[in-house]
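Researcher: I've been going back and forth with a colleague about how Delta(3)-Delta(2)-enoyl-CoA isomerase might be arranged in three dimensions. Neither of us has a model we trust, so I'd like an independent prediction. The organism is Punica granatum, in case that matters for your notes. Sequence below.
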Amino acid sequence: MCTLEKRGDLFFLTLTGDGEHRLGPAVIDSILSALSEAAAQSTPGSVLITTSQGKFFSNGFDLAWAQTAGSPAEARERLHGMVASFRPVVAALLSLPMPTIAAVQGHAAASGLLLALSHDYILLRSDRGLLYMPELDIGLPMPDYFSAMGRAKIASSSAMRDIFLQSAKLKGEEA
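Model: Here is an independent structure prediction for Delta(3)-Delta(2)-enoyl-CoA isomerase. You can compare it with whatever you and your colleague have in mind.
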């Protein structure tokens, strides 16, 4: 899940625990609730900093949960549900009335990368961490708002190609 802590004008949204911070329904709802709370409490000068505990920033949607649905059709339905329920998180981050910073100390993959890209700024450790869009590698289609965010946030067309069409794994220094 996540926590939201306010210290002065700073809001700290932290993905908690030592796991991969997979974005399943409960985590997505928790993040959306925290963003709503931050927006309601914001004042001039507020800033939101999103970070996580452990090795991973977020390793994307909870595909293991989707696959426990019982049948391939139900698994696809769960995956589509996560894709649809994550879109409001992206919209909430983009529309917050304050600057947002993703402090990425570990891996940000798939929807975890999109979570980071949804912020105004991304700070990534140069010595560890990874930005990665693995949809091609695992045979999943790219949701339309993922590619739209990439076009809006990644200025270099060659970097956009490398990330979204070649599943390049960018380490801190490269990113």
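Researcher: What would you highlight for our discussion?
Model: I'd start with this: The longest strand covers residues 2-7. After that, consider the following. The domain at 2-171 is CATH 3.90.226.10 (2-enoyl-CoA Hydratase; Chain A, domain 1).
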